C-alpha cells in the first residue's frame, strides 16, 4: 500500500489520470444503470434535473477549487486550515441560497415535469458539494492519492445503491436522488478521516479570505447563470419544442462528451496549482511558458483521442443503451468538434483566476452565453434534433476568436502559433516511446 501511495505521490499525472478514470467510471456506471432502469422520457427528466444542478458547478469551481488553491497553496498549516474552514462556510452559504431558490421553484410547481425533483435539489447539491470540498482540499494540496481513495469509497457505495434500487418494484427518480444524497453523505463522513478535521474545526474563520472568496463566487455565479443556463438551454428547448425522448438522446450525447473533456481537466488539475505558485512568486516568464507548454500538451492528446472516439463510440452506445439512443452518435460528433475549442476556454479561466482577474473570463462567458441562448431557439426551430448541437459549435468558435484576441492584445501570446509546436510534441512522444520500447526489449 505504501509503495502504491509513493507511486501516486511521485507521479502526479498518474494520480490525475486515475482520478479522471475513476470519476468517469462512477458517472458512466450511473448513466448505464439509469438508461436501463427507466424509459427514455424519464431519463430526459433526469438530464433536465442535472442541467439545473450544473448551475452550481461554476460557483463551486470559484469557491472550492480556485479559492482553495489561491488561498492555501504554499501557505503555513494554520493558514491552510483557516482557508479550508472559510471555504466550507462560504460553500454552505452559497448552496443554501441557491437551494432555497430552486426549492421554491419546485414547491410552486413552475415546471410540472420536474417539480418533484427540484424539491430534492438542496439535499442532493449540499451533500455532493460537501464531498467535493474534501476532494478539492486534497487536489489543492497535491495529495491526489487521497482523492483516488475517496473515489474508491464512492464506487463501492454506488454499487450497493444500484443493487438496492434494482431490487425495488418500479423505483422512481425521486428514489434515485434520495439514494445518491445518502451515498454522498456516507462517503463524506468516511472521507473526513483523510483530513485533520479537528484542526480545521478549531481554526479561525478568516473574514478577509471570505471576502475574497465571495469575489470569486460572484464571478462564478455570473458564469453559472449565463454559461450553464446557455449550455443546457438546448435541453430545455428540446423538451419544449421536440420531446423528452430527444432530450434523453441529447443528454446522453452530452454525457459521453465528458470523456473527451476529462483528459484536459486531468492535466489542468496539475497545471493550475503550479501556475498560481509561479505567478505569486513573480516568475512571470515561467508562468506564461508553463501555460503555453501545457496547452500544447493537452491538444496533442485530445486531437487523436477525439478522432479515435468518433470512430469507435457508435457501436458502444448502441450496445450499452440500445437502438433508441443511436441518434446520440450524430449529435456527439458535432459536440466533439465543438469541444476542440473547450480546453482553450478552460485554461483561459485558470489563467485569469491565477492573475486575480476572473472577470475577464466571466465577460467572455456572458457574451458567448447570450449568443448561445438566442441562437438555440433558432437552430432547434429550423433544424430539429440536429439543431440541438449546432449552437455549441457556433458559439465555441466565437469564443475562440475572443480569447485569441485577448491573449494577443493583453498577454502577447499568439495562441494560433502554438499549432506549429504540435508536430514537435508528437516527435517527443515518439522518441520517448521508442526509448521505453528499447529499454523493455533489453530486459
From TrEMBL:
UniProt xrefs under InterPro entries: Poly_Biosynth_Transport
Q: How does it sit in the membrane?
A: Multi-pass membrane protein
Q: Which residues form a coiled coil?
A: none
Q: Supply the alphabetized keyword list.
A: Cell membrane, Membrane, Transmembrane, Transmembrane helix
Chief location of this protein within or outside the cell: membrane
Q: Which residues cross the membrane?
A: 12-34, 87-108, 146-166, 178-201, 222-244, 256-277, 298-322, 328-352, 364-383, 389-408
Cellular component per GO?
Answer: plasma membrane
Keyword Membrane listed: yes
What is the protein name for this chain?
Membrane protein involved in the export of O-antigen and teichoic acid
User: Where, subcellularly, is it found?
Assistant: Cell membrane
Protein's organism: Flammeovirga agarivorans
